[in-house]
Amino acid sequence: MIHLAKEDIRHTLGKFIVTAMGVGMLLGIVLIMMGVYRGMIADAEVLLEDLDVDLWIVQENTLGPFAEASRIHEDLQYTLKGYDAIQKSEAITFQSIQIPKGKEQISALAIGYDIYGEISPINPKRLLAGRVIKSEHYEIVVSDKTLFKLGDKIKLGRNFYKVVGITHGSVSSGGDPLVYLSLKDAQELQFTYTNKRVQTDRARGIVNRDAHLVNAIVATVKPIYSLENVSKELKKWLHKSVYTREQQKAVLTKYVIEKASKQIGLFTVILVSVSTIIIALIIYTMTLEKMKEISIMKLIGLPNATIVKMIVEETLLLGVLAFIFGNIFSHLIYDKFPKHVLLESSDALSLFVVVVIASIFASFIGVKKVINADPTAAIGG
Amino acid sequence: MSTKQAIKVENVNKSFGKGDAFVDVIKDASFTINKGELVALIAPSGAGKTTLLMMLGCVNEPNSGSMWLGDEQVYENKWLTKETRKIRRQKIGFIFQAHYLIPFLNIIDNLTLLPQANEVKDKDSKAKARELLKYFGIAEKEEAMPSQLSGGQNQRVAIARALMNDPEIILADEPTAALDMNRSIDVVKMLKKIALEQDVAIVMVTHDDRMLEYCDRIMKIENKKVVFEK
């Protein structure tokens, strides 16, 4: 059996492959965009997953430190420990910082935690080298993204901190690397000012600044208690905002990532549309190049279905080949991006379905040309 | 029961346009062409040769009249079947000014494309194609692409393609237009031989008077009427 599409493509194989590579690059960028979004979600969930807590207690009427400034007293953790339903509770701080490295500054999110506490934000699985913080002062654990090595000294605020541990894959929702400090160091870094500032504040009458603030209290609930009920009770009695882990995840995705995801989604739709239009134009041009042959095929009696099948198959093959090239392209370049790009096979599968549907749509213009082709155009030279 | 009749046309009329743009092209055409005949169709440019050829080929619909291809009546003031393309596929062979082979198919695939559409077994259509290529002296070219063959060889392949569906009629639109004198005579002689040996009626449009002597009859379009010269 003669396979017209296969033979036609074989006849112009080089051109077809180069065309598919071009469209493939566009589809590769679509996959990268999807990967950037997935990366953002994954990054946002790193801290949530690593802390592995049930409740987030934050400043009243705020969404918590992932979305906005939240300040809460550190000793609230002890109040919580008095509740029968609470298994563990710890204070935690979050602060965006700039770490000097040579002439450059590295944006990072500093997490302060009680190194003697029962809840640690450092997931042991992420620890590539070194150890967790063991001293209350001047030790720091950094993400490998910062490129610091064990033993390096980092100046933050007024003090130097020694790198004692290196983690991998620990990033904030913004893609910045995470660094970990003891709670006391983190509080000092966040809530204590330079001597000059203290002097100025005193001159203005501002004294006794309270450094015993944190950004959130995290807690786990005993399994026999209902998480929802405990959350409601705490909200009622503590006059704080209380979020479950799922609610914090929703805050991250809805308030922090939503805009970015919409932007990425829009870009993705535009790129897929552009790819569809390009495929349609390529197929239209390829069909135009064959109009004489198509007229002859119609004149000698070949059914439309045979010719239409050729056009649709070529379009689909172009789409599928472009998709394959797009996948290869995206896998070749994804780790070159500064932000975490997470390529997921489910996204690739969705794009594949979209490409197949888009290719079928793209073939319509060529198919219409075939159906309208005048067989008498073959007569008369 | 099969007859010698390949084409029978009765009182066929064809016009184009309406009102001021109305043009009569063929008026009251009636003729019969038998199997085994090579008939030349001559007329000045614009006289309606292609229109007549396309009506005989079930491509353009006449306005009125009756038409038979072989024993089957295909037109009686309207097409008697919706599948005129199937009639072409099964009963008619076409030869064009240039070979117009499908450039992305090799020679054997160019020949077997039409039988494939007629659901002839691949093995049988290939055997037939090889037989025809041998008949035309280009058996060794079956795997070649049209671009690898000379103009004369391609035209022979095009003629072979027209015979692949065992047609009752072959409609040839100036098949020698792109060839030199000697090759033109060879092609017309070949068509004459095919008409006799394959028992097929061939209607050949030509502008070259030198080809007429090889034809059995000459069909002319004069003042919109179809007439025969010899």
Structural commentary:
The complex is a heterodimer of chains A (381) and B (230). With 381 residues, chain A is α+β, with helices and mostly antiparallel strands. Chain A has 2 domains: 4-42 and 259-378, no CATH class; 93-214, no CATH class. Chain A has 11 helices and 12 strands. In chain A, strands 1, 3, 4, 5, 6, 7, 8, 9, 11 and 12 form a 10-stranded mixed β-sheet that branches. Chain A has a two-stranded antiparallel sheet with strand order 2-10. The longest helix of chain A is centred in the N-terminal third of the chain and has 39 residues, at 13-51. Chain A is elongated and about 100 Å long. In chain A, 41% of the residues are buried. With 230 residues, chain B is an alpha/beta fold. In chain B, helix 3 (107-117) packs across helix 4 and helix 3 (107-117) packs parallel to helix 5 (151-163). In chain B, 31% of the residues lie in helices and 28% in strands. In chain B, 45% of the residues are buried. Chain B has helices spanning 49-56, 84-91, 107-117, 122-135, 151-163, 181-197; strands at residues 5-16, 23-34, 38-42, 64-69, 72-76, 92-95, 169-173, 201-205, 217-222, 225-228. Chain B has a single domain, classed as Rossmann fold (3-Layer(aba) Sandwich). The longest helix of chain B has 17 residues, at 181-197. In chain B, a hairpin with a 2-residue loop joins strand 9 and strand 10 (225-228). Chains A and B meet through helix 1 and helix 9 of A and helix 1, helix 2, strand 6 and helix 3 of B.
